[in-house]
Amino acid sequence: MSTLYEKSDSKPPSGSGSCLYDLLCSETPRWDRPSDAETTTSWFLRKEQKSSGARTRLERMLEESGNSVCADCGSPDPKWVSLSLGVFVCIKCSGVHRSLGTHISKVLSVKLDEWTDDQVDSLVNLGGNNVVNNKYEAFLPDSLSKPRSDSSIEERSDFIRRKYEMQQFLEGNEQTNCLHQTSSSTLRNASNNHFSDKKHSDKQSRHRIGQRFRNSWGRKDCDQLKSRHGEFVGLIKVNVVKGTDLAVRDMLTSDPYVILALGQQSVRTRVIRNSLNPIWNESLMLSIPESIPPLKVLVYDKDTFKADDFMGDAEIDIQPLVAAAKAYEKSEINESMQPGKSVASKENHLVKDGTITLTDGRVKQEISLRLQNVERGTLEIELDCVPLTQ
Ligand SMILES: [Zn+2]
Questions:
Q1: Where is this region: Disordered (predicted)?
Q2: Lower CB density within 10 Å: C or N end of the chain?
Q3: What angle do CA 168, 169, 173 make, to 5 degrees?
């Protein structure tokens, strides 16, 4: 059943007992990825071809009048899209959209994500900012003014939640109070299964992150959906490249996947079956909160009938990267340079120095991590910091 689910790329049945993985599946975006039969090279080629035509159409769509400003706050030149809702939004509003969960708003970057024709088609079908706003703001009370580009995160968050999540201004008065109720109870079931497994109680501390996800998501009842995030200062695109010599958790091998957590957000990679040297090459995006917490990296072995097994974790201090990105945000320098590095030490879990590079105005860092709290395994990760002006 598990194999079928991996290949069909569909959502897992609720309460299937595969705990943390299921928990994350229901909240995080699924990315285009190579099928078993396809080589990585041909997958990239196919993606490139698809992406170029789709991107042209996407950029043409951005030029339409209503799409030249953020659908929620009116900031000019929005570079983010809610694929599920069909609106172009600014980076600040995109942070709020992302915190609604992907079951309500699936956010992609116009520039940084690879777009498929199907994705552009679905966006075109939704009609763009004007059409979507006519629907979701049909009954906007006169007393309520929309947020502006300089509005606080609280104002922005309040409006966006009322508009899309509670749908208070929707045409036809089709008010739905709690779109995510099903998803939320599914999460509770999944995580209850997970934590009822006594055998794993000694690993409780290892699962503390999962516990925290459950708590934060379990709380997602409508009246408690106050802003859980501060202001976002940017985005980080994390490419989980590969794992090397990972721990064995099944008979001879493991089915590893990686969870990335930053503050209260989390995303995860796909599962690679039967591999101790998995290659993911999978890019995942997270908003960077103002407080800049460490990026937590956790590796798990996917199990179908019991709780997923822990395969190590590590933390990455992303402050040097964000500081470099801020410093060079307005830089005109075009040639490559090295604005800094994270020197490898026992404390920071780095296998070698994580050099920060500036290439074409983008600040990046390659990280090689030694996994902690486990007998063996390293992980290669590339970080790409996207400043607020993107
Ligand atoms: Zn906005």
A1: 180-210
A2: N
A3: 80
Q: What pTM value is reported for the model?
A: 0.53
Q: Decide: helix, strand or coil at residue 309.
A: strand
* CB of 215 closer than 8 Å to CB of 228: no
Q: What is the per-residue DSSP string for 19-45?
A: HHHHHHHTTS-------TTS-HHHHHH
C-alpha 5 to ligand 1 mean position (Å): 37
Residues whose CB falls within 8 Å of the CB of residue 148, separated by 6 or more in sequence, listed in order: 73, 74
The mean pLDDT values, 10 residues at a time, for the chain of 390 residues are 38 39 39 46 48 83 92 94 95 88 88 88 94 92 90 90 90 44 34 36 41 33 36 85 95 93 85 96 86 93 90 92 79 61 74 79 87 95 76
Domain boundary assignment for the chain? 31-165, 232-387
Fold that domain 31-165 belongs to in CATH: Annexin V; domain 1 (1.10.220)
The CATH architecture annotation of domain 232-387 reads Sandwich (2.60)
Instruction: Tell me the CA–centroid distance for residue 187 and ligand 1, in Å.
Output: 30
